[in-house]
Each structure stands twice: as C-alpha cells, then as structure tokens.
Specification:
By secondary structure, this protein is an alpha/beta fold. The chain is 45% helix and 18% strand.
Length: 315
C-alpha cells in the first residue's frame, strides 16, 4: 500500500512544523506528504520551503479546508489517504499500527483510531478519547475483531476517531464525493457519513494515534459550529440516510453528534441556538439530555456550575 498524507494549512506558521515533524517521525513512513497552502498571508510558505524535497506543496487561493483537502486528494499518487490538520500532530506509530491492522484485514477500506485531547489553555492537559478504563470493556465487546461492521457502530462505541485518525482508500473517498466545498463547519463528519452509507467496515486502533490540540488560536478547523450548518447537516443527512436505508442507524449516531454540538454551543453562550435545534431535532436525544440542555440554554450560569461539578479536573 502507498500512503499519501494530506495537510491543509492556512496561516499555520505557529504550528505547521509540529505537524510535519510528526509525519516525518513515523515508524512506518508515508510515501508522500502533500501540504496545501490555502492562501496563507503569514509566513507559512517560508516555513514549508525548509522541507523542500521532503514534502509536496500545492499553493492555492484561500478556498477553505474542504477545497484544500480535496485538492490534495486529487493530486495524491497514493492509493490510501491519511489526513492531518496543521494544528494537530500524529503519534510516532500511527501509520504502522493502522497499516498492520489493514494487513490483517485486507478487505477493509477504512481505518480510524483512538486519540488524545490536548487542552492547550489548561496546562496542555491530555486525555484519551477512549480512556484506559474504557478499553478493557471495549475490547470485551469487540471480541476477537479490531474492526466495526459500520461507522455508525463505531460512533455508538465512542470510537469514531476524528479527521487526524482517518486512513481511507482513495477510490472510496472519490466514490463518496469528497469533502463538501463551500461548507466551513462539520465538513469532515459530512464525508464520514457518506462513506458510512457505502456500508464499509471500519478498522479501529485502540491505542492513541494522534493528538488533537483544542483551544488553538485562529484554528481553521476548530471554530465553534455554526447553528445554521448543524441544521443543514442534520436535515440533509436525515434525508440521505432515509434514501440509503440507514435512517435508524443514523439517528443513533446523530444522538451523539447533536449532543456534542449542543454542549459546544452552551459553552459559547448560544442558548437561543440550542433551543432552536432542540425544537427541530430534540427527538434525536434522550429525554434527560433534552431537558438538561433546555435548562442550560435558559440558565447558563447553572449549566456551567454543573459542568464544573462533574469535571473538576478541567477547571
């Protein structure tokens, strides 16, 4: 297998070297590293010049992260595509662990994995998406397999990973239609669901393979979700899931995604937006989540107090 790595970069001078170095440090090297400089106006281009001969650089006018990733996918010579955001990084064995899983299961077209959250404004506190306490029960449920029958199943087990953990066959990305250009939020979830509608099994590496840096200043990929995009996303995928016979599975998956987005909106004091989403899509959530979210949208101070009580380690 030949792996091409796609890294979109927009005004990423503060952290692009960290991302590149993490790819160059892989114990299983990538065959190709493509950086798409998406119209940066800082010194990103100068930093990239230092790696001439080690990376391919595509320069384009600013068109957004989806267009940048798509340009990289189309230009890639590899039959497998791995993604990394410019403000994040891989752990050294990322490609090796995922390649070994794919060798064990040669019919798989897609693999993801566990990752670490790094809370950059909280003394760089790191915690895995799938915790060490969860892993024994997780492996018991998985049995002898290290893959899911569907992406929907992975979502329900808190094992969907994120963009930085994905390794996907290029032909399947093209079949699914690539990232939605012009959409600046939730564009990655949109593509993963369209891959899910192709009924692909998904490999999963339980060891962390990447570090997702949260609270990054001026990040092109970590902005607060726009409620209008959430509305559009849910409306579109309720329709697509119904058309492809995956509605019941999508609804279970959407429960987790909508819950996360509502949490993010509450964190950013967007109570009115939360109430509008609950009015249209509240039936996707459990009664408890609907009720606590609604109360939180009306009483943000009470909601923040309750979150601090539940998660004192994040103060």
């Amino acid at each position: 297998m030949r792996i091409s790595v796609i890294i979109p970069a927009y005004n990423a001078v503060a952290y692009i070297e960290r991302a590149i170095q993490s790819v160059l440090a892989q114990t299983r090297p990538a065959e190709e590293i493509i950086i798409i400089n998406d119209g940066s106006t800082d010194n990103t281009a100068k930093v990239l010049q230092r790696y001439e001969g080690q990376i391919r650089i595509i320069h384009q006018s600013n068109a957004g992260v989806s267009a940048a990733r798509n340009a990289g996918i189309r230009a890639a010579t590899g039959d497998w595509i791995a993604f990394l955001d410019a403000d994040d990084e891989w752990l050294p064995e990322k490609l090796q662990l995922q390649s070994e899983l794919l060798i064990r299961h040669p019919t798989l077209c897609w693999v993801t994995g566990n990752f670490l959250f790094c809370r950059c404004r909280q003394n760089h506190l790191q915690s895995p998406a799938l915790s060490e306490k969860q892993i024994p029960d997780f492996k018991r449920r998985m049995g002898e397999t290290d893959y899911f029958d569907s992406y929907f199943q992975a979502c329900q087990r808190d094992a969907a990973g994120n963009t930085n953990t994905m390794l996907v066959r290029k032909d399947k990305l093209l079949e699914a239609g690539l990232f939605p250009e012009g959409q600046t939020r939730i564009e990655d979830d949109d593509l993963w669901l369209r891959l899910a509608y192709l009924d692909l099994k998904v490999g999963y590496v339980s060891e962390p393979v990447a570090v997702y840096h949260t609270e990054v200043t001026n990040s092109a990929t970590q902005q607060t979700p726009n409620p209008a995009y959430i509305d559009l996303f849910l409306s579109r995928h309720l329709c697509l899931a119904s058309q492809t016979g995956h509605l019941a599975l999508f609804r279970r998956c959407a429960k987790y995604k909508l819950g996360f987005w509502i949490y993010t909106l509450l964190t950013n004091n967007q109570g009115r937006a939360v109430r509008e989403l609950l009015k249209k899509y509240g039936d996707l959530l459990s009664p408890y989540t609907r009720w606590t979210s609604y109360i939180g949208s009306l009483c943000p101070g009470l909601w923040r107090w309750n979150e601090k009580r539940k998660h004192p380690e994040l103060e």
